[in-house]
Amino acid sequence: xxxxxxxxxxxxxxxxxxxxxxxxxxxxxxxxxxxxxxxxxxxxxxxxxxxxxxxxxxxxxxxxxxx
Length: 67
Fold this sequence. Notes:
The chain is mostly helical. The chain has helices at residues 5-13, 17-51, 60-66. The chain is elongated.
């Protein structure tokens, strides 16, 4: 069963202020962790592309010259 954002917010609003703050803290930490995971996945993908010769690094001037 999938809950809507509105129903989730209503359920959180029914909690005590202390519990609402706890939910806020937990969600912030989960969001930060998800962003870290995304950055790590992008980094690993770029390493793989570079290893396969599909990406390179260098100076900006060289990049524009190659276009």
